[in-house]
Amino acid sequence: MGRLASLAPTEDERSRRRGGSRTGTPWRIRIGTFAATAAMVSAGIVLGAGPASAAPVAIKLTSASCPAEIVQGQSSGCVTELQNLLNAHGAGLAVDGQFGSSTLYAVREYQAATAIAVDGRVGPQTKSKLYATAGAAPAAINLQSSSCPANVLQGDKGGCVTELQRLLGHFGYTVDVDGDFGAGTASAVRSFQASHGLTSDGQVGANTKRALYDDDESPSTSLDLRSSSCPENIVEGQSGGCVATLQSLLNGKGQSLDVDGSFGPQTLTAVKAFQSSNGLTADGQVGPNTKAALYANIGGGGGSGAPAPINLNSASCPAEIVQGQRSGCVTELQSLLNHHGADLAVDGDFGPLTDSAVRDFQAEKGLSVDGHVGTNTKAALYGAVTPPTSPPPGGGYAKILDVAQAEVGTVEGSARANSYGSAVGLSLSTSDYAWCATFVSWVAKQTGASSYRNSYVSGWVKQARAGNYHLSVTTSPQPGDIVAFDWDGGSDFTGGNEHIGIVRTVSGASFTTVEGNTGNPNGSNDGVYVKSRTTNSSYDVVFIRVR
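Above: the chain's sequence. Below: its structure in token form.
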């Protein structure tokens, strides 16, 4: 199974091409022969490898035995596991358990190809992505579809199990996403059932399936269309997280779709328009070529011309990184800006587009907008923004929108985003659970507008309808109100697929919001972003006044 890694055009090339269709082939195509490599890995035969016995026994990267970050210079079974996973993506490494320069290069290449900040450090996000895109699992199948049995049981294999494991991971359970319902998956299922008041029998029947999908969010947009979790060709009539990702990517290329996970006529029209503008066959089928074009320039691509990235806080980088410089510090800067949705070419050259992206980022984070990447900008780029001190800043409902807007651009999985969980007593990474209502709870706590906290959308709607905690339902929304969405309709907020945010502007039936755990308009990682919504749509909306 081939993987595509793009070599993005330089800033000058991109500025020349902006607004016009691309000609020629400015990207390098790298084919990773997964099937052959996986076979060699399983046999202990990898290009350049020594005897299989020389490597420490592989240890799962997400286990307590592995450090939070695996970095160059380490030697252990965790590195053995890392090398095996990278080889499953076509790296061709010697599996020796030694994190050397070849492994570092493979990590950076993988991060660039999968829209992760290119830092060569294997932290929680890179670990999660490596397992999610391992390529060995059957394509996920919606558990509630007719293709899955009424009860998914231990011993079962296939796409239904892949989906089950993916959903368990979204709730924070560490399971291999391999499509094989083994003892580890069974244990996670029983734990999930017990925590949700279900019969803890390890059988995934109707009630367990319903609870697994009741994650308070719109369909996930974190799936990589190029991974085995998505069909080779995504077509009209399909639904789910792969379609939601497609819609988010199309919006990042200039479309204005509802990210509802349903491939209908509007999505079909948008796909065809995108294909036409990129010189592709406009058949409305999202195959390998269309996927490659959708991911072009997202997360960089690095290439042989870019200097190796250097941590911005190291002694090797200047106190202020400014336009005109070219170095590994700029490579790192561009990767981090892309991690926050900038969509830059990662070429290590601080040109006009990088300067513009820096200024946009500074404005979003409330920093001095000077284009100079100094101490504060570096800290914000790494997600190390200091959360507001206690006691909360106060200001009540009048400050709700101000506090929410100040968080726009915060990326899922960053230290800042993870701090939101403190409002509801969670210490999980925001990459591991649905956190839209957690974000609203955090804003309420910061402003003191309401004492109510809940990580479920249904709770906010229930209390507003009951008139508790200074919450009430309103039909005349204003900036600073809370808005809850029921993507399934019916306004009961009990069937799964709910979402919540904070109203930013209102114009007739249309309004904009600030939402947590929502898709990046540029198609990269989820986070806190401004979204355009309407009351004249297929989903139901409830506005909540905080007074």
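The two ends are 56 Å apart (CA to CA).
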